[in-house]
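Subject: mismatched residue count in predicted assembly?

I count 452 residues in my input, but I want to confirm that the predicted structure covers every chain. Input:
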Amino acid sequence: MKFKGIGISAMAAAVPSRIIENLKYTEFFPQDQVNEVVEKVGVYERRFADVKTCSSDLCFAAAQKLFLDNVINREEIDLLVFISQTPDYRMPATSITLQHRLGLPNSCIAFDINLGCSAFIYGMAVVYSMMQNQGLRKALILDGETRSKVYGSRDRRSAFIFGDGGAAALVERSEKFGETIISLNSDGSRADLIMIKAGGYRHMSTPETLTEKVVDEFGNMRSDEQGYMRGGDVFNFVIREIPRDLKKTLAESGKAVEDLDYIIFHQANNFINSHIAKKMKLDTDKIPQTIEKFGNTSSVSVPLTIVSELKGKLNGQKTLMLNAFGVGMTWASAVAPFVDTKISDIVEVSEGQPVDEQLRRDYTPIEREIEESKNKQKKDE
Amino acid sequence: MEKFIDLLKEALEREDEIKMEDNFREYDEWSSIAYLSIIAFIDDEYDTQIEEADFRKLKTVQDLYDACTKK
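Triage response: the counts match. Full output below for your records.
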C-alpha cells in the first residue's frame, strides 16, 4: 500500500505505575532458572496493570497527554481507531467508550481493531486509507494492551516476557508528509502458534477451561484461557518471513538501508530481535529498544518504543522503518516519514486513572447501571 | 561435523563432550531456551528451519545433524 501527504504528527504513551522486576519474579521458578530466562529474553522490567486498569485507561491517559501537549480541537477528531486484543468488554467496542470518555463528538467514527502484535501498522494502514477521504479532518490511533492479564505466571515460556502499555498517535493530512509504504500479511495456517484457546465462542468458558494444568515436558502450567506460544515455530516463522518482508518493503519505497533514520522492531524479545538485526546486518545504533524496561507489550511495543526512545529526535524529515509480527500469524512492515513529530513524555496510570491529576477528566461512568444501583442502595440505607 | 558439534555445545552452553549417538534431550542443559539457540544457529549456519513437529521427532545429535544438512 502506498500513501502520500498523510502522517503521524504527535504521539504519547502511558504505562501502569506498577513495576515488575523480572529477576525478583521468583514465586514459581527457582532463581537460577529465572536468571537464565531473563538474560535470554532481555526483559528486566515490565509494567503490570492493577485490577482496576484496563487497556482503555492506558489509552485514555496517553490521549489526554496528547491533547495537553498539543493544540488539538477535540471537535476535529473525526476518526478514532482503538487497537487491542485485551478490550474492556466483549461488547461494546472499547473505541466507543473512549469517544465518550475523551469528550469527542458523536460524529466521530469509532471502531476497534482486534489483531495482535502487528496491529499498530495495520491501524496506520486503515487510518491512512480513511484519511485519504477529504471529509475527515484528524484521526486518533489508540493502541492499548494488558497482556499481563492474558498469560499465566507458571508457564516459563511466556511468564517473563509480557508487559502492559498504551499509546496514542494523531494522524493528519499535510503536504510535509512524503510517501508511506506499508506491507500487511496474514497466514491463518499458523493460527495455532499463538493462541488463547478457550473463553471465546468455540470453547466457551467453563470451570475446566479455567483450571491450570501441566502442559509439557518442562512442567510448565497454564489453563486454556491463558495464552500460549509455540516459541520455536514462532521463531522459525519470524526468521523466514520478516527479513523477506523488510527487504520487499524497503525496495518498494525506493530507499536504501542507509536512508533510514531509525528501525523500530516489535519488541518480541531480545533474542529474536538481535538475531534478525545480525542476519540482515543492520546498524544496531539505529534500532532503539525498550524490551529491557517494558517487555513485550504486543501491538503497543512499536509506538511505545518510538515515544520512549525518539523524543526530541524526530525534528525535521526523518524516515522510519517499522516492523511487527505476531498472533495470527500476521506481519507488517512500513517505511514512513515522520516530520517534526511531537513526542510527549510517557505518563503513568494507577487504579484506572492517570497519576497526573491534570490528565483526568470528568465524565459519566460507562457502567451507569451499576453506579445507579449503587447510589440507590446507599439511599435505601 | 566438528563445527556442528561446537555450535551445538555453544547453544546448549554444555562443557561436557557431545557424541553423535547421544539423545540431546537427556542433557541437563536441554531446555526450551536452548531450543531457541539451536534454531538460531541452524538458520545462521545451514540456512534452514525445522518445524517444531519435525523437531520433536529428532532424538539423537546425529538426527539433528542430518536434519540440518539434508536439503
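Residues 101 and 361 of chain A are 8 Å apart (CA to CA). Marking this ticket as 'not a bug'.
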